[in-house]
Amino acid sequence: MGYRDVAKIGIGGPVGSGKTALVRRLVPTLVDEGYEVGVIANDIMTQEDADVFRDSFADLLPEDLVEGVETGACPHTGIREDPSMNLAAIDEFTERHPNLDVVIVESGGDNLAATFNPELADYFLFVISVAEGEDIPRKRGPGVTQADLLVVNKTDLAPHVDADLDVIERDAAEVRGDDPFVFTNCKDGSGVDEVIDHVDREVLFA
Amino acid sequence: MTTDSGSFLTALRLADSFLPVGGYTASYGLEQYINEDRIEDGDDLRDLLAAYLRRVVGPCETVAVANAHAARTEGDLERLLAVDERLHAVTMPREFRESSTKAGAKLCELLVAGDDVRTPDSGAGVADAIEQNSTPGHYPVVFGVVAADRGLSRLEACLAHAYSFVTGLLGAAQRLGRFGHTEIQSVLESVQPVVTEACERYVDADVTTMSSFAPLTEIMGMRHERAGRRLFMS
Q1: Least CB-CB distance to B106: which of A47, A70, A88?
Q2: What does residue A71 show for φ and ψ, rounded to 5 degrees?
Q3: In this complex, is the C-beta atom of A100 within 8 Å of any C-beta atom belonging to chain B?
Q4: Keywords in UniProt for this one (chain A) (predicted)?
Q5: What are the sequence ranges of the domains in chain B?
Q6: Which candidate in B9, B40, B181, B221 could, as Cys together with B93 as Cys, close a disulfide (CB 3.0–4.6 Å)?
Q7: Which whole number is the average pLDDT over A98-126?
Q8: Mean pLDDT of residues grouped by 10 in chain B (234 residues)?
Q9: What pLDDT was estimated at residue A33?
Q10: HEC string of A24-50?
Q11: Looking at residue A51, what is its pLDDT?
Q12: What total of structural domains would you count in chain A?
């Protein structure tokens, strides 16, 4: 059993957009649904960060199903051109837990061009924040246009940063065509159920 | 030393950072040198790389590449695994061993395990042994196998490996420190003769001579395990 035998969800997006917050919302739900889940965080900066990450899932996941992967200051390389170290970490998960159902791979924060290698992620979510500017979708970055699901997070901040959610919705619909996008506020959990529905439908029941 | 076009291109491919074996995640202690302000300019970097080449890459990894290449050429799996075991034993810092074995496993998966040119007594044998965790599968060992399979001479294999080690570390230095691209190329130019010197000196060395003497580098590698900043796996 190896990385090819387990479902893999990639979560990418710029620094501070809410990728980790989304992972923290997704994991308890997937565990609650009965799935055995592994989590890989790219670009933790210190062992202290790794410990914080393990602590946050201490009651949900075995410690050896939470792993940090350093990508040598090249987050996009780690998820796109050369995902070998992430795949190696998934191989280690599956060796220790042969019944593993799904692995969430969180990319280090990157730019709007970062996309997941399809051999690393069966399903790719790209997380942006309204606080990064309402014009992010219409810039048509490959992350925004190619992701299986675009997640527009921190909707609660929109009035404080002069971001118009209607503009973001219109532009996201235009640049993504028929591909889905979801508004979320991972802080209070709104919109997260819709993300879970997509993941369940497109990855786990596929 | 002459080579055909196919082998020449293989050498370029194996020495290219485009090869997807995770080389960009390894700094082999360099990150810790920079964390501790021990590398401040191009001269420091030049001296460190020359020391790596003379004390680690030459007497340790080049010996492994060369002997793995010879073992593969002779179809001697037992000898190949002995090279791997020896390299594992003389690589002191845990993270150095992990970076090397992870990259080795990925190179094996990419270019040995599914390779039509493999033979049952060597290529496939080492791929199975790595897959079954019965041998560590260090990168220089797998590199020697791949290079032999694809027609590189032993010296060419050692040169390609040592060169890619140097450019990997220079890339890491550029991402970690404040080095300009022209300065990095200048360092590369000046250590290139040391690459040749180290490879020519150790290409015929017996596996029993394989050893490294780089105590500070090893200490840096071990301190990196608990480093305050970690962008690299080693």
Answers
A1: A88
A2: -115, 25
A3: no
A4: Chaperone, Cytoplasm, GTP-binding, Nickel insertion, Nucleotide-binding
A5: 5-16+23-226
A6: B221
A7: 96
A8: 83 96 96 95 96 98 98 95 98 97 95 63 77 95 96 97 98 93 97 98 98 95 92 94
A9: 94
A10: HHHHHHHHHCCCCEEEEEECCCCHHHH
A11: 78
A12: 1
Average predicted confidence (pLDDT) for chain B: 93
Nearest alpha-carbon partner for A97 in A40, A38, A54, A42: A38
Q: Which of B131, B118, B196, B128 is nearest to B162 (CA)?
A: B196
Report yes or no: A77 at the B interface, CB cutoff 8 Å.
yes
The whole-chain average pLDDT of chain A stands at 94
**What whole-number distance in Å separates Cα of residue B121 and Cα of residue B93?**
32
Query: Could you give the CA distance from residue B207 to residue B63 in angstroms, rounded to a whole number?
Result: 6
CATH code assigned at A27: 3.40.50.300
Question: Mean of the pLDDT values across residues A43-61?
Answer: 83
What does the alpha-carbon distance between residue B17 and residue A82 come to, in Å, rounded to a whole number? 10
Let me know how long chain A is.
Answer: 206
Q: Please state the φ and ψ torsions of residue A151, each to the nearest 5 degrees.
A: -110, 120
Alpha helix locations (H) across B112-204? 123-131, 139-149, 154-176, 181-202
Joined together, the tokens standing for residue A17 give: 């957009």
B120 exposure class (CB count in 10 Å sphere: 0-12, 13-18, 19+):
exposed
Nearest C-alpha neighbor of B27 from the set B48, B11, B9? B48
Q: What are the start-end ranges of the E strands in B56-187?
A: none
Closest CA to A65 of A99, A46, A39, A27: A39
Per-residue pLDDT at B114: 67
Q: How many helices (H) and strands (E) does chain A have?
A: 7, 7
Record the tokens describing residue A160, joined without a space. 């404080």
For residues B32 and B221, what is the distance between their CA atoms, to the nearest angstrom? 7
Q: Which residues of B touch A70 (CB under 8 A)?
A: 25, 230-233
Shortest Cα–Cα distance, B74 to chain A (Å)? 30
- The boundaries of the domain holding residue A61 are 3-204
- Please name the fold of domain B5-16+23-226: Urease accessory protein UreF (1.10.4190)
- Total Cβ atoms within 10 A of residue B196: 16
- Separation between Cα atoms, residue A68 and residue A98, nearest integer Å: 20
CB-based contact B156:B3 (threshold 8 Å):
yes
Contact A16, A7 (CB under 8 A): no
Predicted ipTM? Answer: 0.88
